[in-house]
Amino acid sequence: MSDPFKREDSSDDDQWRDPHIGETPTPSTRFSNTFDDNSTLVSGRSSRASTAMEPFTSTRPAGSPDDYWVLPPHCTLTDILGTGRTRLKEMARSTGAYMTYNDALHQIDLWGDSLCIDKAKHSLNMIANRIAELDVTLLRKTKKWSRPDRELTNEEKRREEKRQQRILEEKKYLGEPTEKLPYYSVYYSPSDAVSINRIVGNNDSYLNQIRIDCKTYIEYDAQNHIFRLYSNDEANIKAASARLRNWHLRCCREPEAGVARLMQQPSANLALKYRKLPPDFVLYDYVPPDREQELRDRLRMFETITTGFEASIAYWNASMEDSLISLNDSQQMRGALSERAKTLDKRNEEVIQRLLDRGLESLRLKDWDIRMKIRFGTIYLVDYPKRDQMHLTIEEVSDKMFKNEKFKSALAPCMSKSLENLDMLFEYLGTKAQEFSENPKTSFVILAHQYPIAASPADLRKKDVNRGEMWKTRMEVAFTDKGERGLWSTVTQCTNLVDISCFNAEQPYSWDLKVQFARSLPYDDVNAPHEKFSKNLKLSPSGRLIMAPVFDYNPKIVKQKTKWRYSWHDFTIEICQEELWDLDRIKRKDTTLPLDFSEFQPHHKQFKVSMYKEQWIDRFAENLRLGVGEAPSWTIRDFLGTEEENVHTIVQNVKEFGQILASVVPVYFGQSAASLV
């Protein structure tokens, strides 16, 4: 039996549209010696501070100031307010507080309500922080005077003794056994599989973690390429052997990527042809306006033509006389699919099963951020054969075009440009699904270029230090009810491992399924650029993001995501309003001040619909906590081999919800009456 996903060469390789056109652009897949509200900066607030928001006035209010901010000793007035105090007016405008410099007290006096004053003081603190980071003289060079340590209590002494005993117990497994142990095991590592240094780590750091956790002696015989394990306990040596094997597999096995472009089996025979994208069609990813039109001119989408005839549709491209003869001779075959087309759904499930099986298994032992989600939208063509004047059969599209390695397409997830267009969808979910109590939930995504670790203050002052290329990172952060930073994470190397899309020729919305992974950056390094940046993030009273500039962290795109979630058929349906700001299009005179996004309209806005299982999130969360050689509790069977979870069940639920979307969500972009896509 032939492989249903084997790629075949197109019959028109010489007519391939453009081999140089790539895929649609993808998204760019705590201070030390600094100051905040709890530091040595001196500020105060009088009882006159009002609680209501007052408009900013350029005239100095009468009476004493409501608050003040004292310049720190390491900062000059020019450092804080700029040459000629030019920054003072801009800060007053952006914060809503009236500000003036008090020469006698070496402080900035503030008038306004509490929200405006807090915003102004936050801006001033951020400027002082940046100055402190550049000042190498602020670094402590001598040990700080302090009180002598107090004597430990009896309970503290017992805890310290136990800790020291545990450290000594662990250290003994880092050497060689001093006596013969009853349990012994051997693990063979082929010399050509992976470098031994990659397995044991620098100074045996990876191997030491297994030794300590499993209380097992482990030696490596370089001549015979084997690991010898010794232990007093049979369970310990079994655990150490399993973790050593898992770690070896993790090091030598690369993620197995897979891409599939599928076509959902139609209910009747039909033909397809190309059409240009409507002017109001939203692409897969945000593209700056100066490049968007050029990209649009190259792209196409399918238009469906209901023919009702089986097999060959050659008469569409023949003479008019031959077409009429074929039309008359084929009336009895109206609506019939070819035998090949009748197996599309079955073959699609086989492809999905194989790609998910390989992809998930290759990621199972990785301590990475893994996600799997199904999205709905409209498929358009990026790289395709030149057939603008021809009509394509189901077989030509599904068996030839979609399987050609040159073919590229993308699913645009935009389902609407306005919330009103989704009213019927919300109404359906409100009666047929269970709404989450936290709806709607807001989070922010920042796409940035950054260095993974912070530079020293001395290096920051130098302009010619070569630190290599910046990393592309993705930060996601949520906020508490008080507007402070809540849960957050930063990842890099975002990759689509499994990318499966399924084109629906009979309904306006198609779907795709992606398995994605990314590498998490440390969140406990208080000097890392992403940690400093995230700590300074705040929310404005209007719910928009306020971010302060940080050295070595250059944000490029900011997205505000508002999500409504519903439980439907053991799946979570997610409706997401995505608002996007392109920082290259935001022009400001002074980039050292915090940026309040409530002052700028989003450059792009769309509504997206996706579905997934909460169990998927819970299982993948285990991978983030894996130690060396540890394995998560989930297996491939949990995703693909049970009665509740398997490829057929997933596909059937996706098709059912796709039909619901087609009936309750009007197509937002313009189209001709004959088009269904």
From TrEMBL:
Superkingdom of this protein's organism: Eukaryota
Biased composition (Basic and acidic residues): 1-21
Region feature (Disordered): 1-68
Residue ranges constituting the DUF7905 domain according to the UniProt record: 337-645
Pfam families according to UniProt: DUF7905
Residue spans of biased composition, Polar residues class: 25-61
Alphabetized InterPro entries for the sequence: DUF7905
Protein name per UniProt: DUF7905 domain-containing protein
Organism expressing this protein natively: Rhizopus azygosporus
